[in-house]
Each structure stands twice: as C-alpha cells, then as structure tokens.
Amino acid sequence: MTTAYIEDGDEGNPLLTNLKHIPVYFLQPVRFFRDYDSRHFRSDLGAGLTLAVILLPLAIAFALIAELPPQMGLYTAILGAIIGALWGSSNHVYTGPTNAISLLVLSVLLNVATPGTPEFIVAAGMLAIMVGVFQLVMGLARLGVLVNFVSHSVVVGFSTGAAILIAVSQLRHLFGLAVSSRNLVGTFYEVATNLLNTHLPTATLGLGTILLIVLLRRFNPKVPGALISMIIASAIVFLLNLDEKEVAVIGQLPSTLPPLAELPLFDLDFIARLSTGALAVGAIGLVATTAIARSIAVQTGQRLASNQEFIGQGLANLATGVFSGYPCAGSFSISAVNFKAGAQTRLSAIFAGLFVLIAMFSIARLAVYLPRTALAGVLMVTAYGMIDRAEITRIWQGARGDALIMLLTFLGTLFLSIEFAVLLGILFSFALYIMKTSVPRVFPVLPNENFKHFVQQQPHQLPCPQLGIIKVSGDLYFGAVSHVEEVIHHHLTQHPDQRLLLLRMQGVNQTDFSGIHMLETLRHMCQERGGDLFLMKVQEPVLALMKSTGFYDKLGPDHFLDEDQAINYLFHKVIDPAVCIYECNVRAFLECQNLPKRIYPVELPPLTEIVPNGIPDISPEELWQKLRQGDDQELVVDVREPREFKQGHIPQAQLMPLPKILSDGSELASNHDIVLVCRSGRRSIRAAQMLQCRGYQNVRILRGGMLAWEAAGLLEAIDL
What we know:
With 720 residues, the protein is an alpha/beta fold. Helices cover 56% and strands 7% of the residues. It has 30 helices and 13 strands. The strands form 3 sheets. The chain has a 6-stranded mixed sheet with strand order 4-3-5-6-7-8. It is elongated.
C-alpha cells in the first residue's frame, strides 16, 4: 500500500506552505481507505482481536491509575485507537490510555481538583482537549522535527520513575490498606506501618493475580494472562461472595456509547491552571509516540511523517476529551503486541477499538465482581515491564549527557511534581543540544604521512610556520561563533608567524549573520599579520548567505578554493617560498618535499627568540617620503632572492640576499641609515639582528615588508 505523506522539508513560504497542506493532513483517512490492500484484511483483523483482548483489562486499570472511573479508560481506548489510526501515519502504533500518561494525568489533576469529584472528571476531559489542541497546532505548524531535540533518555527516565510510582501507589489496593499519602516516601511509610492491618482475602486475590500472570507468561507468553487472571479473580469473588467481605470491586460499567462531555471550554482561569500540565502531557505523549513509531519503522522499513502523526495524536486527544475520556498517547507495550501479532496497516488498531466497544456492551455488568486488588496486581506486573533495564544500561554506559538527563528525569519523577520532572527533562535535552552545537569541534589539521588526507594535528607535530589549516565541524550560528572564534584566536596566538589561515568548512552546513561577522573578524586578524583568510569546501547554503551578505565579493572568489588544488594554489601563489627555504624544517606539505634546503654559514637562532621591539622599523609611507625627497642617508637593502627582487622591488633598493649578509663577505656603509626589506619582514629581522651583532646601530626594517608596500599602493620597480 502506498501512502501520500507530507514532506517535512518542503521549501517555499512557510506560512503559505502550511496553509496549503492543512486540507491534505485532514484527508489522511480518505487516502488510507483508497489505497488499502485487501490482502492485509485478515492479518489486521486477527491483530485487532488480539489487541482488544489485551486492552480490555488494561484500559480499566490505566484509568484507575489516574483515579478516574474505569469507563473513562474504555472510552479512551476506543476513541484513541480509532481516531489515532485514521489520522496517524504509523502502521503499528496503538493510541490509547497508557500507564505513564495516566500517572502524569493524575499528578496534573491533583493540582486543580479532588479525586472522585465531578470537577476531577471535568478536569480530565479539559486536559485532553488542551493536549489535543497543543499537538494539533504542532502538527499543522509542521513542527514535528522538534521532537528530535528531546533526548530518548527523558522517556526512559520518566517511564522508569513512573513504573516505581505506579507499583508503590497500588500497594494500598493490593493489601487492602487505608493509605492517604500520594508521594513515594509517604506511601512507603504508611504501608509499612499499616502492614499488620492487611486484609487477607484482598491480599490473597491480588498476589494470586500477580503469580498467575507471571506463570502464564512463563509457559505461554501468547496467552492473555491479564484477562484470564481478572476473569478468574472475578469468578472467585462471585462464588465466595467476597464483595460482601470487604473486598473492593469495580462495580457495574455503563453499556452505552461514549457520552458527550460537558466541559468549561471558555473558563480561562481553569485553562490557565491546567496549561503547564497540558504542555507536559502533550510533549511526553508526542515524544513517546514518535519513539515507538520509529523503533517499529526500523524493522518494517516504513517511511513516517512526524507532522501527520502529531495531527493524529492531537485529534485522538480532542475526541477523547469531547466524549468523556482522558489524555491518550502511543503505547509501547500494546504497539509491540500489535506488530508481533502480524498487523500490516492501521486498520488493526481500528478493529481493536471496535472490538473493545463490542466487549464493553457485552460484559459491562460482569465488572460488578471485578476486584480492585486484581487490577492492582495487573498494574504491578505492567509497571515491572515498564522498566527497560537493557536500555537503562546502554544509556548509562553511553554518553554522559544522556545518562544525566535520564537520572534527573527519573529522580524528578520520583520526588518532584511529575509534570515538572517531564518539562525539566525536556529542558535539559534542549540545553544539552545547545551545549553540543555551541561548542563545535575546531582543530588544526595536517596532511597524513601519504599526503592524501587531512588528519587532526597531534601535539608532537609541527605545523607550517606560514599557513594554518583549521577544520570546523559544526554550524556557525550565533550560539557557536564565540567558541569557534576563541579557538582560532588561541591557535593564532600560539603560532604568531602563521599569517595565512585556511578554514575547512565541509562540516558547516548552516550559518547566520553572526557567523559571517566572525569570518570577517578572522580575515581582519589575518590581514593585520600581513596575510589573508581562505576557505575550502564551503557548503551551498553557507555560500548562498555569503553571497547575499556581500562577504563572498569582499573576500574574493579566488579565496574560495577547491579541495584538491587548495594547498597547491597557496604554495605557489601565496606562501613565501623564501621562508620555506631559509627558515622552515617542517616540510608539512607534499609541495614542500622537493624544496632546496639552505645551509647558512652561521647558526641562526629561532625567529621566536629575536625580540622584535629591539629592532626599529619604518612604515612604507614614511620610507616613500624620504626617497622622494632624495634623502641620501637612506640605504635600502633588499635581502630577498634575485628572482623575487626582479619581480618587483623598491626603487633605489640594493639587492643583497640574506645569505650574502650572513656570510660576512659583504660590508655595508656604516655611515648610512640602513633599511632592510624582504617580503613580509621575517628575513629582514634576521638580517637586522645579525648586523646589530656586528656593531651596526643604524639598522631599521620596513614594517610589513613588500607586502605592506604593495598594500599601500606605492611604486615598484621591475627588472626586465
């Protein structure tokens, strides 16, 4: 069966696109039945019947977790399954009451009403309406991608904490004790202090229910243990008249269609009191449902549409709220049963809802003998199954951030307000995402031993003294640019001679204006050193923003380099070869390997040991004025190689390469003010230091070398 799904990444005006696709979202049932393959009917019918057998006792039990009438659980199971399947996208997700959501609903409702009162039931319906509106708006606004930012650890931590709370809360019903506390510690204390007052018939039925379910699962997992154990417990109550001996029973269920609820839809004060809880229930419901759908889709290969699933969940909650139910969501355990039972499409969930409706009409009167302690036993077993020990171990042994989120959500669920714990876990998920994306990996790279790939520079490796190559792995948005700039600035501080910077940008998929501004700052830093900034492997979205903001033209097209030719271009067109010959022993690049190595007649100290402040300098403009005025005292000595000198030099300059100065074979007139010139100033500093050691006190260097002279637009002489 093929299904038309709405793409989450459609381009165009977001508002117009969303409005255009709203009718498409609501026509999902039409597409489903139009494209349904009748060959799947038998499989879906069988899976639906299996689901109904499991759902019938669990729906009642889950409603009792929320301390709501049992029929509300049945109404929610019926409507949630049908509506969620019609407008959802997953072929196997079952939507209905769940244990975790029921516990969360109870926590929210306790803040606004007292269990057992009409206000409590009305609040449950209003909560479902608000959850539905929230989820529906999320789907229509195509914000399904937001669930990707909520860590799965939130669901695991919340489910584990909820399992413990459910199990502890059922102890009072399991042993027939009068316990008033609703928190973990208080319930434990009251149960322990009143344990001697245990009602033996109640405890025997409850513990027997647990034992029977465990034995049935052990010998035949396919048998509906919960349903069988509840039928047997009800038969025992009927035969022994235990309902007359203080064994609490559910009572007769209504055998009617879900009635229309009377809700205060315009009571803004009531809505405000439920708003935080609705946000928590809606968020955890969407995250849990999406996680279930994806886990099953991995095995089936189904393509999911998260926005359509949001709309299905929203409409399901709206329906349950309107027709006397309470909030619902995708169920882990029941969806897994649906998948294992052979369901092929969403029709299985629709069948399950219809079968539960038929069963409610048929056996509603039998619930008068259903003992509350048997339901407590079912819930105790269900709670135990909620604790995914394998997943907890994987998270705990994995990333520290996920483990911390799981632990905080778990502890918050146990000891804080449950809705606050859920929102806290979601908040920490977003915080973890922001922390990760705001500190992208930024590190220097060098070619590997074969000069075929760039690898991260190790501490013992020496980089090129002129060119720094830095890889940025992460988006350059406003939250990350400060970190990226600090790391690069620290690198340049540690390597003051690197005047050229090449950024590898293949890991940058998005940027904003803050990122563009940071790149402009880096370029300015490089230019202050007499160098420049170059980029390679810039992604199309980033390049588009660079062009629209003018940065592309400002930097120049020749500064955006191809990966295969970047080093070759920089080596032959930009890097100072004299530095490579005279000063560099690194030979970092393939192009460096065949360079001749200059042997100096004297041992030169490292350039970093020469104090620049001890050598006077002169600006290009000041030297130009002196030469124009015919100052005979200025002797300009160019210490570059002859081939460099011929390509362009200062008028009236005298060529005297650095090796010739160092050889002590040439004497310079000591009665002149000597100005030493090279390409960037590095060789001039060495020559000036050597001349000072020989007694020359009237030595200066051209600040910034010929690069600065050219940047100032001053006249150059060329030897033909």
